[in-house]
Specification:
single chain, 545 residues, alpha+beta, five-stranded antiparallel sheet, 14 helices
């Protein structure tokens, strides 16, 4: 990691800048909140959770300048965990309600219940919870954390993508931001309940569309929505916390553990239950990273860790290092790198340390180089494809089964890898250059592939599934264009401009990282998108300047 450059008034995310302290005193005494409690009324019964009886899990010193304590309280007759989290130097109070157990209890969603949060005789809040999903959580906070980061400084340090509101604004048409979303307990604030639903969506990308629009414009409605969706990350049932350690479960220690599809592939197999929310790494939104950068709120850092861990634990152990889909790999590496970047070296009990995520990221890099970058099979060496041809379904005459790859998904990997290098993970440059090679071949007009289709939905590398893989870009163009009835041209011809927008994103990262060969293709593709008056989402308005 490079050393981060920040302004004095900006949170510093250098790992050495965040020091964590704990104390031996009981939680309530140390935090000055011994009279804080939460009373839950459910099904005619009352359950009281007392801060004075809570286990002290240590304090988090935020890069935003506050110190937040954490006490954990449980009740023997209900599988809820209540975390009392007061600030140590102010009267701000936060209480987190989390449902789920790894090692005990039967997975069960809870119905409606009522909560009263009290400080002595003072009622701080009275809340009606409509339902609560297993492995989900929500919180009450007396005040939202303010935005303290400077966006320009975050971009300078590579912590956010190089976005610019004026770049790639190729159309007089304006994007409709829609209404500002609001968060309700166990709600999703506009997120797709079934993540596996296909199509370009505002919540998929390096960052979400609302996050990107705020980073570009500082619009208040965009900030409101990114905050709402950050809270909605608590609704998603990916909070596999180890109640023995109080942190997200350590999958290095429990290497055979899995919650894959409810099937018996893990040792242990972690049972889940139906919630109506379908989690899919191939469409995973980045909900918590930007909110944490902006506010230094550890609630978001926790959600980032849970999301990164979920991607790993949702695969069977033998397939942890694999690429089920290129886009799933892209977004999983994105989330993992985000956690490795902003997690402190030393953390309180309720978080995993930076070393945990850095190990996994480095393990992934070494594996990727061996299996893909150094692989001499034409599919890897020439086409820079991470697809598994055996998984390419039969789509009729235009794309027979076992013959095609998906370059538009490769652009996601290229953009993620490029961002990793900007973040300071220089060891990922080799993987980035390898992946960018495919984009350059499809956009330069020099490889034998016509750049009229720079990032097609399907690119054929075989005539049929039993045939040998093509050994040149010209051969792949001939196979693909013959079935799709494409004509060779120097003009962008794809009916969906998003394919070009994705390719442009990878090229921008190449230019920013000093790849001279990317300059002309980027200029050409940018001019073509302008000619087409393409409407570019904020999350893809990347600047090479």
């Amino acid at each position: 990691m490079k050393r981060l450059t920040t302004l004095a008034s900006t949170p510093c995310y250098s790992r050495r800048a965040v020091l964590i302290g704990t104390a031996a005193a009981p939680f309530g005494v140390r935090a000055g909140e011994s009279n804080l409690r939460a009373v839950i009324k459910m099904n005619g019964e009352t359950f009281s959770f007392e801060a004075s009886q809570a286990d002290d899990l240590g304090a988090f010193t935020s890069p935003a300048g506050f110190i937040q304590s954490c006490g954990r309280a449980t009740h023997p007759r209900i599988p809820l965990t209540v975390f009392f989290r007061p600030d140590e130097a102010t009267d701000r109070v936060e209480v987190v309600f989390e449902l789920g157990r790894l090692w005990s209890g039967r997975p069960q969603n809870l119905g409606a219940y009522g909560v009263e949060i009290l400080r002595g005789q003072e009622r701080l809040a009275s809340i009606e919870v409509p339902r609560h999903f297993w492995f989900s959580r929500w919180r009450w906070q007396s005040a939202a954390r303010p935005v303290t980061a400077k966006i320009a400084s975050l971009q300078l340090d590579g912590l956010i993508p190089p976005l610019d509101r004026s770049v790639a604004d190729f159309s007089a048409r304006k994007l409709d931001p829609g209404k500002a979303e609001r968060y309700q307990i166990m709600g999703l604030a506009g997120l797709m309940p079934n993540m596996s639903a296909t199509g370009e969506r505002p919540d998929i990308g390096l960052v979400t569309e609302h996050q990107a629009r705020f980073l570009c414009t500082q619009a208040t409605d965009a900030l409101a929505t990114l905050r709402a969706q950050a809270e909605a990350a608590g609704t998603i049932p990916w909070h596999q916390r180890d109640e023995r350690t109080n942190a997200p479960v350590d999958l290095d220690l429990h290497a055979e553990m899995s919650w894959y599809g409810g099937r018996n592939v893990g040792k242990p197999q972690i049972a889940v239950t139906e919630t109506g929310i379908g989690i899919d790494s191939a469409h995973q939104p980045a909900l918590a990273y930007v909110p944490y950068l902006l506010t230094g709120d550890p609630y978001h850092l926790e959600d980032l860790q849970f999301a990164a861990n979920f991607n790993r634990g949702s695969l069977p152990p033998p397939y942890r290092l694999s690429i089920p889909q290129p886009r799933a790999f892209a977004w999983s590496v994105r989330t993992l790198a985000q956690a490795a970047t902003v997690t402190p070296e030393r953390v309180p009990q309720w978080l995993l340390p930076a070393a945990y995520f850095r190990r996994d990221l480095e393990r992934t890099r070494a594996w990727f180089e061996k299996e893909y970058v150094d692989n001499q099979d034409p599919l890897r060496r020439i086409f820079r494809a991470t697809d598994n041809l055996s998984d390419a379904r039969d789509e009729g005459d235009r794309a027979p089964g076992g013959t095609w790859v998906s370059p538009w998904q490769h652009e996601f990997i290229g953009a993620v890898f490029g961002w990793l290098v900007l973040m300071g993970f220089e060891s990922w440059r080799k993987a980035f250059m390898w992946q960018l090679g495919g984009t350059l071949a499809r956009t330069s007009g020099l490889s034998g592939w016509s750049r009229s289709y720079p990032s097609p939905y399907r690119l054929l590398v075989k005539s049929d599934k039993s045939a040998s893989t093509a050994v040149s870009w010209h051969e792949a163009w001939r196979l693909t264009s013959a079935r799709a009835n494409w004509q060779e041209s120097n003009d962008f011809a794809d009916g969906d401009p998003m394919s070009g927008i994705f390719a442009r994103g990878a090229l921008v990262l190449g230019v920013r990282l000093g790849v001279k060969e990317a300059e002309e293709p980027l200029q050409w593709l940018t001019a073509q998108l302008r000619r087409r008056q393409a409407v570019v989402p904020y999350k893809w308005r990347l600047t090479a300047a």
